[in-house]
Amino acid sequence: MKVNIIGAGLAGLSAAITLAKKGIPCNLVSLLPSERAQSVLAEGGINGALNTMGEGDTPAEHFEDTIRAGVYLADENAVRNLTEQAPEILRELRDLGVPFHLENERIIQRNFGGQKKKRTAYARSSTGKVLMTALIDETRKYEVRGLVTRYPHHELEDLLTEELSANSKSSCCGALIRDHYTEEAIVLQGPVILATGGMNGLFPGETTGTVTNSSDAAALVFSKGVRFSNLEMIQYHPTTIRIPGKRCLISEAARGEGGRLFTLRGGNPWYFMEEKYPELGNLMPRDVVSREMYFVAHDPNCCGQVWLDLRHLAGETWRKKLPDLREEVIHYLGIDPAKTPVPVEPGIHYFMGGIDVDISHRTSFRNLFAAGECCSQYHGANRLGGNSTMGAIYGGKVAAQSAAKALAECSGKISGMQAQQTVKEGKGLVPVSEEAAQQISKLLLGALGIVRTEADLEAAIGEIDRMLSGRKDRSGDCTDFRELPAAHSSNPKELRRLLLAKALLLSASCRKESRGAHYRSDYPETEDDFRTKMISYAAGAEVFAAPEQELPPG
Length: 554
Hints:
The chain is of the alpha+beta class. It has helices spanning 10-21, 59-69, 76-95, 127-144, 216-223, 253-256, 272-276, 286-297, 315-320, 323-333, 387-410, 434-447, 454-474, 492-510, and strands at 3-6, 26-29, 46-47, 102-103, 106-107, 109-110, 120-121, 148-151, 154-163, 170-179, 185-189, 192-194, 228-229, 234-243, 246-249, 260-265, 268-270, 302-309, 342-351, 354-356, 368-370, 375-376, 534-539, 542-547.
């Protein structure tokens, strides 16, 4: 029996390496090779209070910046553990060969949004690529030794679960995966770590994340009854450009190196962030910058467009720190950002909410763990740039340590388990149709933008309910769509996605305040009563959402 890791980005590789170092074998399952994981797209850097810049930075200050930026919604104990371990993780990455920007063997760190000290280590504007390369090479050492078994081009099709008793948690017994090349289904028994990334598939073409990240895994586990939290917290990155099929990120590193946002007011440039927030200016937390961009774009006294001004940056900065970013802008927009301001707009970039985990990365199901962007843990209501890469690597380590304990506890108990719906005959589940995906996306975008209202949220919930009702009617009034055969006229993946979409909307509707990335124009104040997780879960074909303290025990 092995630990089964679903996803092979930063979190998945970190978990696999952690287990292998302990001599514990694991299966590493991914639809795409690690070289094409979303983690590769991370540009700006990775945070850790090394204090290499002589500013007196400490893990305690990293903790304070993270908690404050997340508007006090994240688990403080978890964040403290992350920030205290971050410096050592950066040193370990350097020892693995990550080519951070160095001067005299010292890791150089840059400013990033929401942080008062330079604590973001980087490799030009391609940090994700070099981090992944180092972890891929390290993982291969353990593959050769048989401690890591790769299942490339495989997709998670089902979680195997069993009810232990009426008063206990459901237990995850393994995973059913399917080979996209051969259609062969394989049952993997043992604890499962989900490292499946964010929910980009809910917003096709509207996120900076990889277009292959479908959100099917999140929808699957949500439909099983696994608890999610803070799904309303969707980060809009201030500086994106639209390219074919998706949005392209203009890294926060550009503003970290001195980039300035402006609009035209009365025909003259107005550097609004510097006027409104003189202390941090263009490096305010992302939720603040995106919201201010929204307001000035809708100001009748302004022109409706915001630009990123990089013309004043030194040539050495372009050559050594931002060459990749410059090449991207020239390639996609046909303009040189060293000479011409870049037209930018906020775009969906990161999901702070996801699978609810505790400080040990345990989910609401026994023997099921989650790490990386698929889970809700370190970022609260808004993520600091540079914290996602560190959170994924650290979270993968913690999830692996917890799964190792679970493997020891469940050994022998699960070996005799008869996996439910073990190997399904024929092909895998039919993908979500493009028509349904676009319909769901349109509803979510309309209600879950930078500024939200009760009317928009309730209208979208009503439409989702109508779509769910129509699919249940065509399914013979089935009360639990999970029992539907894959060949049924109703698509199980579409039904799961509808349930997850409804959970996002319900969570936003229930949070009657403004906090971080969640801004309600009808509830513009931040309320102490809502300084709590917003929990959502599915029970059959019904979806529920409520503040954590309002949930019944257990």
